[in-house]
Every structure is written in C-alpha cells, then in structure tokens.
User: Which sequence fits this backbone?
C-alpha cells in the first residue's frame, strides 16, 4: 500500500478530478484531514490477502435481467422542473466549447 | 402527546374507534409543534399531507396494517410531496419526480406521513452535525447529539412525535441513533428492502429500515416494507415471512455468541459494557447458552468501510453537476468544468467533500489496487468471519455504540474520531447481514443516557432477530421508558 503521505498538490489534483473548487483554506485543512484518514486505512496493508477474492457486493446474485419492453418514462415537465436553468425542453448550460481543455482523468 | 405512541397500539385503537386517524394525526402534529422547536428532528412537516392521509383512513379509502399510524420519513427518501433535501444545500429545493418504493408500500399499508427528518448530509455522519441546516438534539439530553445519520428519525420517535419512523443504514446510521435515543432500530439484510427512491450514498452498503419502540411494531413495519422490487435489481426475490405472527414465539435452545474482538475494542464506556453484560445475563436466565465466537478481522472493519463507502459515494455523487437538478453556482463561470466544480463546492458540506475526495483518491490511477481492491478483499475476510461465527451461534450480541450520546461539538472537529464510533456497526453492512439495536439500560448521573444492545444475525435472519429481541423485551422494560421532553 502507498506509504507516502498526501501532499497539498495531491489534494489539489484529487479535487480537480472530483470537480470540487476548493479555496486555499480548504486545501490546507483537507490535506491534513485526508492524511489522517489515509494513514488510518493503511492498516489494511497489515493483512495478507494473497488468494482472497475481492467482494464488491454481499449478495450471490449477478446479471439481473428483465424483458426488453419499452415502458413509460418520467414526464419531461416533471424532470425539467428541477433544472437550475432550462430552454424549452432542454437543460441550459453556459457555453461549453472554448474554455480550457480539461486533461484530468 | 400521542394517546397511543406505538404502531400496534395506534392501529388497534383506530380500528376499535377509540380514536380517529385524524385525531391521532392532529396529536402528532401538535406534539411536533410543541417539542420540535427544541429537538429539531424534522426538516419539513406536512400537516396537509398528514391530515389528508388520515381522512382517507377514517373514510375507509385506505386500510391495512399501518392504517392511521403517524410515521416520519428520513429526508433522503423520495416523495412527490414536499422536498427531498438529504439535509444538503445541493438539494435544498429538490422536488422528487417519483416516489420511493418503501414510501409507496407504507402508504398502501395505511400510514400517515407527518414529515421528513434531519440527517447528516447525504447520510454521511454519526451525529446529524453534518446537516447543512441544523443539528438535531437528543430528546434525553438536549446538549447531546441523537446519533446519526438517521438522527432525526430516531429523535422524532423518542420524543413522541410519531409512532414509528424510517431511516437508512450504510455503516450504522439506523442502529447507532436508535441506541443513543433509546429506541429500537433495524438494519435489514442487504437486499431485503428495496432501495428504489433512496438517494444513493454507497450502493453496496445502503439499506432502509424502521425505528420502533417494540418488536411487534418492528415486525409490522418489516412485513410492509420488505420484498422484491423489479426497480431495484439488488432487492432479493425471497418470500417475506409473516414477521408479525412469528415475532412472539420464543426460541428454544438459543445460542448467543460473544465475540472477544468486540469486547477488546478500544474506548468502550464502562456503563455500556455493564449494561450489555447484564443483557446477556437476562438471556442466560431465559435459558440461552452463551458461546464464545471469534471475528478476527473486526479491527479492520472501519478501515475497509472508509475506503469502500467513499469510493462508492464519489461515484454516486458525481451526478450532482449543477446541470440537471440541484444547486447551481451563481458565479460567472468560463466553462462547463468550472460550472461543475463551483456548483459542487458550494452545494456540498465538508464531510461530503472529504468522502468524495477519499473515494476519488482511492479509485485514481496507481491507488486503485492498493486501496479499493484491497478493501474488497478484506470485505471477503470479514464476511467469512461472520459465516464461521454463525455456525456456532444464532445471534451475536455486542454494544451498538461504544459510548452513550456525546455532546454536540465534542467530535465534530475531528472526522477520524467520529468514524471510530462505528466500530460495532460497520462490519454488518460490509458483510450484508442483519443487525438490530434495542435499548438495554442507561448511563449518566444527572440525566439518563440510553444504551443500545446490538444483535447481529446471518443474512435473512430477521425473524430470528425479532424473536430474540422480543424475548428480551418481555423480560425487561427499557423499551417502555420515555424521555421527559417538556
């Protein structure tokens, strides 16, 4: 497991990946707190997990399928009622093209 | 006050026409108006919804096992009436376009909804202090927290504002507030209750369950809310037992398991240890045998949980983008990524941000195997521990919380100390098994502070848990104690 402590640059990078705009105070505070939490969870590295299967889910079920039948969707008006901004039947957002190309990911 | 403050008593009184559903709804609303300014269990109260639902019962338009029973819903369950806020600025004005399955089931059974209760934002926390709006107070001592994240639902029941309530439990969020507020709380087996319409936190751990005073009530609620739902692919297609007819039957030859790793856990309050060991003595007197079991990976439960839950949360909460619904920044932004980032930064509180970042970090390139996959392997080990323990015993008994209710502000500056409260509860979610907390005594000198006994059982052992808890409640009266909320 990763031995290094988390730095403010790591936190800045993670915040960018997570799409969270953090100010300088938050970056400093979260660096300290995340460092403490990550240090604690590093105790998982004490265990020998060789040959142990990972379990994403406690239930022994997989691939739950249903008939491929079209059903009624939510009414457009109900869905758009919560939109922060709309233009007719569309969600409205600021101009998407032209800003900095985001390289995160 | 409610003339009848339990589910079965209220329903039977309405059936026998000792009280009308409208009268009982009014009593509930009056009680909320009187004590909730102090307790602050509710995010929103819906007198018109409650009275309309009650009238339908009185007019015979709705009937069922919960006919006329006033019930409070955690504010992360989607309802088409009012708002579904998750106690987050992000969803402060969110009107759900559909109804959660559990809400539909309760409604079909005759329930009367009085309001929606406070929680730690997006159910992340153990005290309700992470709510964006306010901290709920413990009805037994207003200087203390009610626990969390379903603290509002636990406090609403404890303070006599409803006859039952509903919460969700991802790492202890039903059982711990039940313990701290002196009521019963059940986290059903993963897949027992549909999660459709529960705002997702950590989808492989989340489960909805009831708060009640006694086991007849718990059985009645579980019979209504359990079952397969085609809209939740993780709900299991197992028949729902008739919990309400099974609950009164005592178990002959009951074997209670005691896990030494739980007894050795750090930071257990002495009054909690004493109350739990006295509860186990009650079972001995009732003829149960007590057997030692081992859960060797208990000490790794919180570490595994605080990797798995944040990873799932970081994915689930990616949907809050300021575009489709929820908070959008009013700052001028230069591109769509800035719109996302500023809206999310303004809409989420600190604990939600911390968990999103832990999850994002643990899932990011270079760390995925070291954190996430390793935690999932430890999850397998924790599940195996329980499988082996339940070969030797029927249920495992332990404290629900290492301490009684702590003071408001006591742990809020230190997220890790808050996480360590979950030592007895998280492994149940990790393994997907069932867990129940019932009141088993009090700590405290000046004011009594409730203590919870946790009973853990294998997957789909709800009938057994209700029977085992019912045996205890017939032999003791802790579940009949009520706080003095003036």
Assistant:
């Amino acid at each position: 497991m990763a031995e290094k402590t988390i730095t403010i640059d790591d936190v800045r990078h993670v915040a960018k990946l997570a799409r969270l705009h953090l100010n300088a105070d938050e970056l400093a505070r979260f660096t300290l707190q995340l460092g403490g939490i990550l240090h604690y969870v590093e105790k998982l590295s004490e265990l020998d997990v060789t040959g142990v299967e990972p379990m994403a889910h406690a239930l022994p079920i997989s691939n739950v399928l249903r008939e491929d039948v079209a059903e009624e969707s939510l009414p457009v008006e109900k869905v758009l009622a919560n939109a922060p901004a709309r233009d007719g039947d569309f969600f409205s957002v600021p101009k998407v093209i032209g800003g900095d190309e985001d390289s995160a990911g | 006050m409610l003339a009848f403050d339990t589910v079965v008593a209220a329903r039977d009184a309405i059936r026998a026409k000792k009280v009308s559903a409208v009268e009982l709804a009014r009593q509930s609303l009056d009680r909320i108006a009187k004590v909730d300014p102090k307790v602050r269990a509710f995010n929103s109260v819906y007198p018109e919804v409650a009275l309309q639902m009650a009238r339908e019962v009185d007019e015979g338009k709705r009937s069922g096992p919960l006919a006329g029973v006033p019930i409070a819903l955690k504010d992360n369950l989607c309802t088409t009436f009012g708002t579904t806020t998750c106690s987050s600025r992000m969803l402060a004005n969110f009107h759900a376009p559909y109804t959660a399955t559990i809400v539909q089931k309760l409604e079909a059974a005759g329930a009367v909804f009085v309001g929606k209760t406070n929680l730690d934002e997006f159910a992340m926390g153990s005290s309700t202090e992470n709510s964006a709006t306010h901290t709920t107070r413990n009805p037994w001592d207003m200087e203390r927290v009610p626990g969390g994240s379903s603290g509002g639902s636990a406090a609403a029941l404890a303070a006599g504002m409803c006859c039952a309530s509903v919460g969700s439990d991802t790492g202890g969020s039903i059982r711990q507030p039940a313990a701290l507020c002196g009521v019963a709380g059940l986290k059903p087996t993963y897949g027992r209750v549909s999660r459709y319409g529960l705002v997702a936190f950590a989808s492989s751990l989340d489960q909805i369950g009831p708060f009640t005073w006694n086991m007849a009530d718990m059985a009645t609620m579980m019979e209504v809310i359990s079952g397969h739902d085609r809209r939740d692919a993780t709900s299991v297609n197992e028949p729902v037992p008739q919990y309400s007819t099974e609950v009164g039957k005592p178990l002959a030859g009951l074997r209670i398991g005691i896990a030494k790793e739980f007894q050795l856990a750090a930071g257990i309050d002495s009054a909690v240890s004493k109350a739990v060991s006295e509860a186990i003595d009650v079972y001995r007197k009732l003829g149960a045998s007590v057997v030692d079991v081992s859960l060797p990976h208990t000490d790794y439960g919180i570490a595994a949980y605080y990797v798995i839950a944040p990873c799932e949360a970081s994915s689930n909460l990616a949907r809050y983008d300021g575009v489709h619904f929820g908070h959008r920044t009013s700052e001028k932004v230069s591109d769509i990524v800035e719109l996302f980032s500023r809206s999310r930064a303004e809409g989420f509180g600190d604990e939600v941000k911390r968990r999103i970042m832990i999850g994002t970090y643990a899932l990011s390139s270079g760390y995925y195997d070291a954190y996430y996959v390793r935690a999932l392997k430890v999850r397998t080990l924790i599940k195996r521990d329980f499988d082996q323990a339940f070969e030797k015993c029927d249920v495992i008994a332990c404290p629900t919380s290492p301490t009684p209710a702590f003071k408001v502000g006591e742990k809020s500056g230190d997220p890790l100390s808050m996480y360590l409260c979950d030592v007895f509860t998280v492994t149940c979610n990790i393994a997907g098994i069932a867990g129940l907390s019932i009141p088993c005594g009090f700590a405290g000198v000046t004011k009594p502070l409730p203590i919870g006994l946790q009973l853990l059982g294998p997957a789909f052992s709800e009938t057994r848990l209700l029977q085992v808890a019912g045996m205890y409640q017939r032999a003791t009266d802790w579940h009949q104690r009520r706080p003095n909320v003036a």
